[in-house]
Amino acid sequence: MSDAAAFSQSLAEQAPDGPLLLALSGGLDSSLLLYLLINAGLGSRLSAVHVDHQLQADSQSWSRFCQTLADEQGIELVIERVAVDSAEGLEAGARDARYGVLLPLARAKGATLVMAHHRNDQAETVLFRLLRGAGVRGLSAMGEHSKQQDVSLWRPLLGLSRESLEHWGAALSLRWREDPSNQDQSLRRNYLRHAILPALRERWPGADATLARAADHMAEASELLHEIAVQDADRLGVTGTVLPLTGLSDLSLARQRNVLRWWLKENRVTAPSAAVLEQMRTLHLAAADSQARVEWGGYAVRLYQGALYLALRDTFQPWQGDACWPEGAPPPAVPHWHWTQQAKEGAVWVLRPPGDLRLRPLSGSRSLLRNGLHQQIKELWRAAGVPPWQRRQWPLLFRHGEVVSVPLIGVADGEEPGHSERWYLLPGDSTAH
Predict the structure, then answer these.
(1) What is the Cα–Cα distance from 102 to 93, expressed in whole angstroms?
(2) DSSP H or E run through 105
(3) How many Cβ atoms from other residues are within 10 Å of residue 53's Cβ?
(4) CA 184 – CA 53 distance, rounded (Å)
(5) What's residue 432's pLDDT?
(6) Residue 230 pLDDT
(7) At 77, is the secondary structure helix, strand, or coil?
(8) Contact 352/339 with Cβ under 8 angstroms?
(9) If you write DSSP's letter for every residue of 400-428 in order, what string do you get?
(10) Confidence of residue 433 (pLDDT cuts 50, 70, 90)
(11) Can you list the domains of the chain with their CATH numbers?
């Protein structure tokens, strides 16, 4: 039995359960992997997707070539054309566009996304991230089995060298296409591939395997840091996008930074620079009544009552609208929140008295008549622990110019709670997923 045949047989034993979706570029790696998966008897649960980045004049010929490969193997192929945003660099833009297709499609199919990365790719990734100043998690590079945006990824070729794959492809008389852009050394990864790694291999023949082994060590260290962060987060009482600061300063500086990185990762937020992370870590030194904040990119972290609140920067903006809510009609839209009549975690209750109402944001020293007294709404909300930015987002319910209901507080004197409909304001997605 040849090495390729033996490896193919092992794929049948290692393959995750359920549907498999192969990212098929038409190059050697993915074309060979398609053959190996089919030869392993996995064709009945295999489909493929080809992403046309439209960066070359003959990109459609690649799509047709992949369609031919899929037809020959009797599997379904989805072809998606994307527009690459090169604002952050062509490589990064192409990768974002590619995963913007692959991950949603795999999720929709309930499939494991199968990628054809090999050991040389792993070595490039380690070097590339090292030169960008990545930490332990970044230097762990790619895992054979991993998750991204709730999608399982499988990279069965990760332990094999490019040379082995070329040998197998030639021995099997496979057909594939060579991407001419892979020779463009103005692209950083290509420069590493064609100029730096060959020099390293000449001096250290086992450089690729050594770098891959270093990635394995980093993956193990990253797992340990994750376990420590989970323990620390549990002690701090972290819930979702809220991180209480009580007890944070009792941790070592390294553990403080570690739990903050974990918190951001759990909320699917890319960690900021070391300088911004340090600003975030020291927010607890601000005055107790401060509305201190740290902002980077499209995200923001704000301090309120001894806790950090994380969200997209826009979701901290106040509402400045004015809307009608006729009786019997659904409630009008409110930015950053949506209405429901079902009690859910994180929802804010609102009593809607009868009649036609208007919705307006809090302004000035607006008050609510309760128990015979005009009570300032901002003080009622402050006492209820409502963060300052939410006080400027929640709608007050008016009838004939008077406040008749306040979220989380109740209705004005003269209104019957039993005759009011109960609604809930539910926060929209506050972080990018």
Answers:
(1) 14
(2) helix 90-109
(3) 20
(4) 16
(5) 42
(6) 97
(7) strand
(8) no
(9) TTEEEEETTTEEPTT--GGGSEEEEEEE-
(10) very low
(11) 3-207 (3.40.50.620), 237-314 (1.20.59.20), 323-427 (no CATH)
Per-residue confidence band for 291, with pLDDT thresholds at 50, 70 and 90: low
pLDDT digits (tens, 9 = 90+) for 30-40: 999 999 999 99
Three-state secondary-structure class, residue 266: helix
**Is beta strand 323-325 parallel, antiparallel or unpaired with respect to 293-296?**
unpaired
As a whole number of angstroms, the distance between CA 150 and CA 403 comes to 44
pLDDT in tens, 201-234: 999 999 999 999 999 999 999 999 999 999 999 9
Residues for the chain: how many in total?
433
Q: Which residue has the tokens 């590079």?
A: 141
- Specify the pLDDT at position 429: 60
- Sign for the pseudo-dihedral over CA of 313, 316, 322, 326: positive
Q: Which residues of 197-226 are buried (b: 16+ CB within 10 A; e: fewer)?
A: beebeeeeeebbeebbebbeebbeebeebb
